[in-house]
């Protein structure tokens, strides 16, 4: 790869950092360190973790340099420190935190200047700039986790977040799309960035099915609540007048009937599909239909699939990204939400979570056998 692509990497790293800092710009140090939920980290932890992950991979692993502060890595290790404990850790705050983020970035760019990121690079982490793509994805994915927490911060106002959350209109069209029985290719190809869990690319056999062209809307979900007494999406409350308000960020905005529903659990997503006389798609069905689906990017969509390894899976570059989560406990979500950076939302990207989770931007679309 040329010096130009190194410049492009540096520019994209800067853009991601700008987005991270813009999200927290309206907040003070106290808000950044507050614990809003046992299942989400204080924002200051995410910030320090983003920088520490960058130091670990781009400065220590790739640059062969010593840690800047030997102890820091312990507090920012996501596996060592479950989310509910992160509010207790002696993490960096305020000016010290910002200085650490900037220092790490400076060192990472220094290392980037000296490495071979060509497709033939000796170090697998560097081939086609893999480790830099991983770092970019990591920061942007943490932006989404931060946005989950920001929904809990009363009075949080951000023009950036408002513009992200504004849905793109979906073109009129048929209610469902029919996908013919046959063999379909699933997963990421050999080239280009993807996580280990998206490989290897393999063929699956599907029977014919019909899948909704668009995700389930708030209007349809209201019918489900009123007809079946379903659990409300997180942040919804009755408005006292027979309608519903969305209280995210401390607002009381009337629920917009035309938007895709978000913040529903996997359990409720499955219950909705059954109530509608349908079912959730498997992740294979979702991916096979992906090129013809509208409304992708509004909400993560629950599937019926367990988060499992694909045939030929090899953990790379570390088992804690995917491998330790494989099993029936976690269900796969596909697509991406308004809070997902478009570069993260590849058709083969697999998100996963526990069925009961609702703090994520999760909705659904329904399927049935054709
Ligand atoms: Fe992380």
Summarize this, please?
The chain has helices spanning 3-24, 29-33, 43-61, 72-76, 94-112, 130-150, 159-165, 218-228, 266-275, 283-289; strands at residues 176-179, 182-186, 202-206, 209-212, 236-238, 244-246, 253-254, 300-307, 327-334, 351-354, 362-363, 367-369. By secondary structure, the protein is α+β, with helices and mostly antiparallel strands. A hairpin with a 6-residue loop joins strand 6 and strand 7 (253-254).
Order of the strands making up the biggest sheet: 10-9-8-11
Mean pLDDT: 95
Q: Tell me, briefly, the overall form.
A: globular
Rg for CA atoms: 21 Å
Percentage of residues in strands: 5-15%
pLDDT below 50 for ≥5 consecutive residues: which ranges?
none
Query: How many strands in all?
Result: 12
Structural class: alpha+beta
User: Kindly, what is the distance between the CA atoms of the first and last residues, rounded to a whole number of angstroms?
Assistant: 47 Å
- Attached small molecules: fe (ii) ion
Q: What's the story with the biggest beta sheet?
A: 4 strands, mixed
Q: How many helical stretches?
A: 10
Note the run of SSEs as H and E. HHHHHHHEEEEHEEEHHEEEEE
Helix content: 25-40%
Helix and strand layout, with pairings?
Elements: H1 3-24, H2 29-33, H3 43-61, H4 72-76, H5 94-112, H6 130-150, H7 159-165, E1 176-179, E2 182-186, E3 202-206, E4 209-212, H8 218-228, E5 236-238, E6 244-246, E7 253-254, H9 266-275, H10 283-289, E8 300-307, E9 327-334, E10 351-354, E11 362-363, E12 367-369
Parallel strand pairs: 8-11
Antiparallel strand pairs: 1-4, 2-3, 4-12, 5-6, 6-7, 8-9, 9-10
The site of fe (ii) ion has 5 residues, from helix 3 and helix 6.
């Amino acid at each position: 790869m040329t010096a130009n692509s190194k410049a492009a990497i540096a520019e994209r790293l800067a853009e991601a950092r700008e987005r991270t800092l813009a999200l927290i710009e309206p907040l003070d140090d106290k808000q950044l360190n507050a614990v809003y939920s046992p299942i989400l980290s204080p924002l200051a932890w995410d910030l320090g973790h983003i920088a520490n992950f960058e130091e670990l991979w781009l400065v220590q692993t790739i640059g062969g340099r010593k840690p800047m502060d030997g102890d820091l890595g312990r507090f920012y290790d996501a596996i060592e420190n479950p989310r509910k404990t992160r509010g207790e850790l002696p993490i960096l705050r305020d000016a010290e935190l910002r200085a650490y983020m900037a220092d790490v970035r400076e060192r990472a760019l220094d290392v980037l200047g000296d490495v071979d990121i060509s497709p033939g690079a000796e170090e697998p982490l560097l081939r086609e700039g893999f480790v830099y793509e991983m770092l970019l994805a990591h920061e942007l994915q943490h932006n989404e986790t931060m946005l989950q927490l920001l929904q809990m911060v009363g009075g949080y106002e951000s023009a950036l977040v408002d513009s992200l959350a504004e849905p793109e209109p979906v073109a009129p069209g048929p209610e469902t799309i029919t996908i013919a029985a046959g063999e379909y290719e699933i997963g990421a190809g050999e080239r280009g960035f993807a996580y280990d869990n998206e490989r290897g690319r393999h063929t699956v056999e599907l029977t014919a099915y019909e899948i909704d062209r668009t995700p389930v809307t708030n209007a349809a979900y209201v019918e489900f609540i009123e007809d079946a007494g379903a659990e409300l999406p997180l942040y919804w409350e009755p408005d006292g007048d027979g309608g519903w308000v969305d209280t995210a960020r401390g607002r009381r905005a009337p629920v917009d009937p035309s938007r895709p529903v978000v913040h529903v659990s996997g359990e409720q997503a499955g219950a909705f599909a059954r109530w509608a006389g349908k079912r959730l798609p498997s992740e294979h069905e979702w991916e096979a239909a992906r090129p013809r689906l509208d409304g992708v990017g509004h909400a993560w969509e629950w599937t019926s699939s367990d988060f499992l390894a694909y045939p030929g899976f090899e953990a790379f570059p570390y088992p804690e990204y995917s491998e330790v989560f494989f099993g029936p406990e976690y269900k796969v979500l596909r697509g991406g939400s308004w809070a997902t950076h478009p570069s993260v939302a590849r058709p083969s990207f697999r998100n996963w979570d526990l069925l009961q989770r609702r703090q994520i931007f999760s909705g659904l679309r329904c399927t049935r056998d054709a």
